[in-house]
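For reproducibility, we list the full input for the 5-O-phosphono-beta-D-ribofuranosylamine complex.
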Amino acid sequence: MTKIAVFASGHGSNLQALIDAAARGELAAQIRLVVCDRPGAYCLTRASQARIPYFMFYPHKYPNKAAYEELILRQLREREVEYIVLAGYMRLIGPTLLEAFPQRIINIHPSLLPSFPGKDAIGQALAAGVPLTGVTVHYVDEGMDTGPIIAQRQVSIDPGETRESLEQKIHAVEHELYPKVLQEIFTKRRENLD
Ligand code: GRF
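The corresponding predicted structure, in tokenized form, follows.
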């Protein structure tokens, strides 16, 4: 079992997909901790329901990113976390965590990167009028959605597509793709360790 922490800021539907895939035995990972920067976010309810401990912090109460990332790092080390999995975490990861987890931080983004990085990628794609968007799983570096790409899936933007319908299609793809890609990464890593 690979020990992971999931970082989320919001609804947590991807967190749920990972919890469910692990419960079904399709993802050989143990979610040791959920890290969240927003009080009241629904991802915290999901963590509680699955009996996963969470660490909720208020970023503005710290002098800088390094200060709260140090605290997060301590939590991750205590739980022997091996990978950080970002699932709708709305903050850039700083040097403290990047240096502690080289090539061990993974993110999912709702566009075909390098197109539409940053916030509201779905809105950006709709506004651009492109016929195709998608989902990208990638390693995290210091930039905004710029790290090496691991996997991508296309999602069509059909005539009459609304934000709601496109969001639904993208989420469905994310929930299938993320556990699958993570499972592949963790399997490869275990093979290399053997
Ligand atoms: C997802 O679309 C993910 O790609 C992006 O943030 C969204 C999070 O959704 N990074 P949820 O909180 O997992 O429902």
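The helical segments are 13-23, 42-49, 65-78, 95-100, 121-128, 163-193. The first helix runs from residue 13 to 23. Both points were considered when choosing residues for closer inspection.
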